[in-house]
Each structure stands twice: as C-alpha cells, then as structure tokens.
Specification:
Radius of gyration: 29 Å
Number of domains: 1
Largest sheet: none
Number of helices: 15
Helix content: over 70%
Length: 311
C-alpha cells in the first residue's frame, strides 16, 4: 500500500511539473508575440540579407553585383528564423515565473499593445514618401526627436541592426579571404566601417521611428519611453538581445565557412610552414662564433643588420 502511494504521488508530481512547464512555455510564446519580439527575431535573416548587401557594397574594393547576389543567397542559407526564435524562447523559458508574469503585465498594457501594432503595420510606399517630403519641409521638434532617441536606446533597435550588419560583414570578410584568413584582419576592417555604419543606422532608425509613430502624441511617446526603460520591459529586451547576439555569432561562423563566397583559390588549405632542417651542434657553434664579429659594428642598427645574416 505504501509503495502504491509513493507511485501515485510521484505520478502526480510529474504531472504537475509537466503542466507547469506547458504553462511556462505558453507564457513565453505570449510574451514573444505581445512584445513584438517574435516578429523581430523571425525577421533578422531578411534584415541580414539587406544589411549585408548594403554594407559590403561600401567595402574597398567593392564586390561585383554577382558577388553581392551570392552574398544574399549565402546569408539566407546561414541565417535561420527558426534558430533565432528558438534562442529567444530558450532565454525566456529559463526565467523565474515571477519575471515572466511581470513582463507579460508590462507588454499587455494598452499603450504597449498599441505601439507594437503600429510597429507591425506595412504602410504604403506613397505614405512613407509623403511623410519624408513633409519632414524635409518641417523637421520634428527637438523634444520629439529626443523622445524617439530615448525609445531607440531603450529598445536597442540600432544596436541590434548594427549587430546584424557586423555579423554578416565579418562572415563575408572571412569567407572571401579563405581558409588562411586571420580573424584580427577582419576585425580591423569591421572597426573601420563599424563607426560609420552605426551613424548611418541610427539616423535611419530615427527616421523610421518618426514615421511609425507619426500620429502618436508627444505625451504618449514620453510614457512609452518610460515603459521601455522600466525594469520589466528592459529585462525582456535584454533577454531577446542576448539571444539574438548568440545566434548571430553562430550564423556568422556558418557564413564564414561558405566557400561560394571565397575568391578563386582562397578555399585551398593553408600551406604548412617549412620547418628548418636540424643543424648539428658543430654548425650551431661555428655560426655563433662567426656572428660575434657583428659586435664590432659602430651602431646597434649595424649590429642588427649584420646579425641577420646568420641563422
């Protein structure tokens, strides 16, 4: 009877754990959907293709159109929407239940839902063009521009776009250089274009936010900025950003291994360094003795030049 009771209690415990896990998974899915993070993560591969082409076209020397077309195909093969979503789900699922509840409460607020809906709209190109012409005629107020900048910084929109850009660009540079590429060479090129790309992206994000929130009053923008800066929303954004960064790193490595991007002959294995033939002890002794004459030179530079002739 005691054994039967233990079995029943164990079964109930496992059932409860499974039920709790299912509830947590449902909460994670709702959080990703309501916050707009699901659409964001799923859209990173498409963003990667667009940003890769734009950034690579500014390299020196610039890739040909055929090479840029191949880069887009390679990014599509290396960057997977499912992988980004999986990383996001994994990061949020590891959180304490209280964190998930607080985050769900924050993203369920009417203002948060309204702004997320605005961000997900697909406006007509004519609307965007008309807004751009209007903006050129009359720039947004300094207060409004500052609020849009706060929202960008809080949501890390520019940071994420820059991460996508540098991820694809690094993978492309390493793939183009081939198997013998040195990572620090790619890092130097990235540093050279990274600062300019950040300025360009931040301006583009500001312009896009101005268009997306064009009908939102400044008071609502201020409330939304504070909401995004709050602890609950900040935690969600940091989890999503970290998950995206992790998958961007993995995708960049896959892109770097794509031989279709390499220059002709770049995919050949690195030539091994020639190993010097072993010398006998007597040879080493005579070489050392002969090199001593270099000490008679007048300057240290002459001594170094003389010593370089001896192994």
């Amino acid at each position: 009877m005691a054994l039967k009771r233990v079995v029943v209690l164990t079964a109930l415990l496992l059932l409860g754990l499974a039920s709790r896990a299912a509830i947590a998974q449902d909460e994670v899915q709702r959080l990703l959907a309501l916050s707009g993070a699901a659409d964001l993560l799923a859209g990173l591969p498409a963003l990667g293709m667009a940003r890769a082409r734009a950034a690579a076209s500014r390299l020196t020397p610039a890739p040909s159109d055929a090479e840029l077309d191949q880069l887009e195909r390679s990014v599509r093969d290396a960057y997977h929407a499912e992988a980004f979503l999986e990383q996001g789900q994994k990061a949020l699922a590891a959180a304490p239940p209280a964190k998930l509840q607080q985050a769900l409460a924050a993203v369920s607020l009417p203002l948060a839902r309204r702004m997320t809906e605005l961000e997900s709209l697909s406006p007509k190109e004519s609307e965007r063009t008309a807004f751009q012409e209007q903006s050129r005629a009359a720039s947004p107020s300094a207060v409004r521009a500052g609020l849009l900048r706060e929202i960008d910084l809080a949501t890390r929109t520019t940071d994420l776009l820059l991460g996508v850009t540098l991820s694809t660009l690094k993978g492309y540079l390493l793939a183009r250089a081939g198997a013998c590429a040195e990572t620090h060479s790619a890092e130097r090129e990235l540093a050279a274009v990274g600062a300019a790309e950040e300025v360009r992206l931040r301006e583009a994000v500001q312009a896009n936010l101005a268009f997306v929130y064009r009908n939102v009053a400044e008071d609502e923008l201020r409330q939304y900025a504070k909401l995004q800066q709050g602890a609950a929303a900040h935690w969600v954004l940091e989890q999503v950003f970290a998950a995206a960064q992790e998958e961007l790193h993995a995708a960049s490595a896959r892109l770097a291994a794509d031989r279709r991007l390499g220059a002709p002959g770049a995919a050949r294995a690195c030539a091994p360094k020639e190993r010097a033939a072993p010398r006998r002890h007597g040879q080493r002794h005579r070489a050392a003795a002969d090199s001593r004459r270099c000490l008679d030179q007048a300057t240290s530079a002459q001594v170094a030049a003389c010593a370089a002739r001896y192994p």
